[in-house]
Amino acid sequence: MAPFLTDWRGRFTGRALAVLRPADPDQVAQLVQACAAHRVPLVPQGGKTGLVLGSVPDASGSAVVLSLARLNRVRALDPVNRTITVDAGCILQTIQEAAAAVGCLFPLSLAAEGNCSIGGNLSTNAGGTAVLRYGNTRELCLGLEVVTAQGELWNGLRALRKDNTGYDLRDLFIGAEGTLGVITGAVLRLFPQPKASITALVAIAAPRQALDLLTLAQDRCGASLTGFELMSDFCLRLVGTHFPSLTQPFVTRHAQYVLLELSSSESEEHAVGLLEETIADAIAQDIADDAVVATSVAQSLALWQLREHIPLAQAAAGKNIKHDIALPVSCIADFIASTDARVLAAYPGCQLVCFGHVGDGNLHYNVAPPPGTAHEDFLAHQDAINRIVHDSVASYAGSISAEHGIGALKRDELKRYKTDVELNMMRAIKAALDPLGIMNPGKIL
Amino acid sequence: MAPFLTDWRGRFTGRALAVLRPADPDQVAQLVQACAAHRVPLVPQGGKTGLVLGSVPDASGSAVVLSLARLNRVRALDPVNRTITVDAGCILQTIQEAAAAVGCLFPLSLAAEGNCSIGGNLSTNAGGTAVLRYGNTRELCLGLEVVTAQGELWNGLRALRKDNTGYDLRDLFIGAEGTLGVITGAVLRLFPQPKASITALVAIAAPRQALDLLTLAQDRCGASLTGFELMSDFCLRLVGTHFPSLTQPFVTRHAQYVLLELSSSESEEHAVGLLEETIADAIAQDIADDAVVATSVAQSLALWQLREHIPLAQAAAGKNIKHDIALPVSCIADFIASTDARVLAAYPGCQLVCFGHVGDGNLHYNVAPPPGTAHEDFLAHQDAINRIVHDSVASYAGSISAEHGIGALKRDELKRYKTDVELNMMRAIKAALDPLGIMNPGKIL
């Protein structure tokens, strides 16, 4: 059972009575019925790539793990309706490839796409790099098939853009992290495959200019703007230290950088022209200091690699204290300035690794120890630093979990920052749909 | 109390103990507390433009009407975050205008926009003409303020693109038609205002060509495709009969027409060029037979007027039997052919008025009597014709209410077409959040 009990980052190993590996939704229903009859808790598990201890059992050993990995069929593909119907255990990359094979795009894209399953993406309402244009996993799902906590199979596999017939059960199961039922299948939205995507790295003086650039790029490019990522110079220096083979395009250093991606349904020329005009505007308006535009797919990938190597460089430097937070986009610059000041006042010299999907208001705001302090030792300050950062997030009406969910890891944080009114509604819904409390206990609530 | 008791179409007049007109969310909370203490049912009411008897009280006279009309402030506008925060009683058009004043677009648009309130739009998850590009009201809402059935004020007014902290209460209240709580405020998404929109009317041989044209236009135009409406020749003839002053652009008649709208964030030239290329492609591929492209805003409006006068022409012709249905887009042509055949077999000579938002799979499939039969007499067949049409919808896994909701009008139809598994989950949620059953009783469930 070992591979099913330890979380993705290797931080926690739970115990289980057994690992159940059903082959289809009916078997899932039968297993849930059996567990309900015997009051045995279930921990649904997909690709197990989650970061908040949502899909591994606790240490009690009283639960069974319900792996959805064998439910891995692409059930149907409808290019005219632009939908794909899949089993919950399908790997995200498999779905992307199936869509591409018929000239369509399934836009959900994230670092774990080769391992994560769509059931897990749905259960955590995963984000990723394409949210700015296409939305979170929630917005990409039209219908669900779910085994309820009573072991009934609910066929909500609607392939419809409009359906106003009663309560939105679909969105209740999405993001519920397996605590209300087990997602066994889904109907997902597909989009036309863009003809071209082109990327630029834009040097700016401070996070505030990133907001000006975002407004400008959205006004000029509309839905063609498909990526907008902020990275501090410290992030790129960290990448340079640990991945010196990656080309860093600017000779002089700048304080901050925006990775900007445009996609065109028309042509590469159209995308390049629009991108160059937008950047020229930004420079003329003193928003941007400098920019490089990728002139080939390889160059675009190289720019994205800089962004994607930030967490890898951090991992190479040692463990650090991570926050996956969301804010109103307009508060991003103020948030960074005031939170940096608060953290540095409490921990002078500590290193702030701040980057993220700024177009969505989503920052990965990570804190590493001062140079010379051992990373492991610094983790002792995790709770105190979480308090500073999350209190700051709350003061801007932000979210303490933008795209990773709550799981077991952030359960106590959730209690601290949600109102009783909201927690009580969540508890009432949990009790209504899972009265025995057997679905993924100890997660979220 | 009379103006608060009769529905928009004048089909039903209920009774009430009183009409309550609170001025702010706290007063709403106090009133709900009082009603809960005395077990008095509440019927939340906005602009009262709904079509399914969702916002008027029943005939018993045991309920109070809770009008949100005095909650009509625009609370905040954040152009950088592209959000607007509004009271539930704000008229939709007021919100559109407030957004436009800062160069932004609030895309929700529907016939009743001058009268309907955003609280009602949210409570019915309203659709309209911009769903293809921007989604339903659900997709346009980031956060809600709700008075619960216990009279507590829930502040869920998040202005965030990403927030994965527990169950999606927001989407549970959206579309719940006031049966779970009272929406008092909302944070809505804004978009960049397109630089230009341009419209064409494309003549095609049959609904199947509309699907080919949709695929072609989406592939070529991506998110620039903002409207895609199908109208039969019968619809345009009806408009011609009742509104002879409206110009009909084609000299020869064609079987079907698609109204196609493109928007560009760049320029009018860009939109026109893209539209002309798309239509040229469609004609070259024998998808389209003919087309007219509007060369001015006035011409675009004139084309949209043809579409918008179809329901008015129907009303002028007399009462008919209406269906607001959704299907997988790929099934639209088969659905129309097979349903037409079934209806005509049962009622020879009856007239089928079929048009709608085909890009969303949403048809208004209406049935008028054979020429010479009185419209009022034909309404006697309403239940039997509903059965034929809705059974056909169900056979294609469609929805019997695409954008109007359930209210009291379609409650029995809902019971017929939903599974017990789904109805029981809905009942469990209703009981969990409104255990006294005082929130808009008799609607949906």
UniProtKB/TrEMBL annotation, chains A, B:
GO terms for molecular function: catalytic activity; FAD binding. Keywords: FAD, Flavoprotein. SUPFAM superfamilies: FAD-binding/transporter-associated domain-like (SSF56176), FAD-linked oxidases, C-terminal domain (SSF55103). Signal peptide: none annotated. Pfam families: FAD-oxidase_C, FAD_binding_4. Residues 12-193 form the FAD-binding PCMH-type domain. Its cofactor is FAD. InterPro entries: FAD-bd_oxidored_4_C (IPR004113), FAD-bd_PCMH (IPR016166), FAD-bd_PCMH-like_sf (IPR036318), FAD-bd_PCMH_sub1 (IPR016167), FAD-bd_PCMH_sub2 (IPR016169), FAD-linked_Oxase-like_C (IPR016164), FAD-oxidored/transferase_4 (IPR051264), Oxid_FAD_bind_N (IPR006094). One of its GO terms (biological process) is respiratory electron transport chain. It comes from the Bacteria. Belongs to the FAD-binding oxidoreductase/transferase type 4 family. This is Hydroxyacid dehydrogenase.
